[in-house]
Specification:
The protein has helices at 26-29, 53-107, 110-121, 162-173. It is an all-alpha fold and 195 residues long.
């Protein structure tokens, strides 16, 4: 159906202003053509459009969206940097795991174990003779591996954590007197006092 063949329903009013003395195009444009010979009115000064309530609401909605997207973007960038750091850490650990797996495979080889026993512990196979090069004083030229007897090692007795703490409490309860020497200002072994 074309636009020209449509007819308005019966009883419908025509669009625009119509009537005697009006041209068919006048009702559509909304302007009345000036009469010939009449003075043309001066154009009105353009007024600045004032912000309306709708504009304020649109600006407010845009500001809220910008803030929410900015915080989301910041969180996204932070998570991306954390992911990159974790991926690099995973890669480092995987390299370490691969290195340990290679080391384990080497220790499963009997020839490698024999070589390590010779090098680290100075062992020899049955029937072999071990030679050690000595200097003029009769000492070995190369320091070989030595194992010490655990009974000959004198381990230090560990000091309880509360011993120095209690010493500071006793010092706080009995401060030095006026005639006592001033403590050293340096701990490098010098005899300089803080005077």
């Amino acid at each position: 159906m074309s636009a020209q063949s449509r007819k308005p329903p019966r009883g419908a009013r025509p669009r625009g202003r119509t009537g005697p003395g009006r041209s068919p195009g006048a009702g559509r444009s909304g302007r009345v053509p000036p009469r010939p010979g009449a003075a043309t009115p001066a154009p009105a000064a353009r007024t600045r459009a004032r912000p309306t309530g709708r504009l304020a609401i649109v600006v407010l909605v845009l500001a809220v969206l910008a803030v929410s997207y900015a915080s989301s973007l910041r969180a996204f960038l932070q998570q991306r940097s954390e992911m990159q750091a974790l991926q690099s850490e995973i890669a480092e650990r995987q390299d370490h795991i691969d290195e340990l797996a290679r080391e384990k495979r080497r220790w499963e080889d009997e020839a490698f174990v024999d070589a390590q026993a010779r090098e680290r512990l100075g062992y020899v196979m049955p029937g072999e003779t071990a030679y050690v090069a000595l200097d003029a004083d009769g000492e070995p030229l190369e320091e070989g591996p030595t194992l010490s007897d655990p009974a000959t090692v004198d381990p230090e007795e560990p000091e309880a954590w509360w011993t120095p703490v209690w010493g500071s409490v006793e010092l706080a309860g009995d401060p030095p007197r006026a005639g006592d020497p001033i403590p050293l200002t340096r701990i490098d072994g010098s005899e300089e006092n803080g005077q």
